[in-house]
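For practice. Any example?
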Amino acid sequence: MARYTGPSTKIARKFGEPIYGADKYFEKRNFPPGQHGAARKRGRKATEYGNQLKEKQKVKYMYGVLERQFRNTYDKASRMAGQKGENLLFLLESRLDNIVYRLGIAPTRAAARQLVLHRHITLNGAICNIPSAQVKAGDVIAVRERSKSLEVIQNSIASASKYSWLEFDANTLTGKYLNVPTREEIPENINEQLIVDLYSK
């Protein structure tokens, strides 16, 4: 499956929540897409497997990860000490594109991915164009000198949210990944146990 590049509101409506962030179009039509979308919202109850699959698909779309990448990330989380579901979220949160998004350098994860791919971001002083690169505690993420004037970056920083596990200097456009966030600090509405149950079948 290729990476999804279609309308984000359509996917948000499919899952019944604005998974890509604030979306004024979703607020107007917060039911599944299609001719019978509003009726489907009131339709038959989903099965246990259906709920598990839907949660996995939601997280995949949310973080912009393909099926094989997601499965590999889950397998890595399974080998780590602690809760599998929480480990999975910690690994997804530690991706370079997600850190760029969390720092406020990009308005969305998709935009963050593009900034990384186009070599606008450095990791510990070296250019890194791999969105899935795992960032470790203490790593420094910054915008390249020649890219600091990009309008998308300047506009995004102006309305950025703050996170306790990240440090960011808006003057130098340099951030630091202080530590792995706790589960309570990750704001997305995710039931990771459903994903663990799905892969445990």
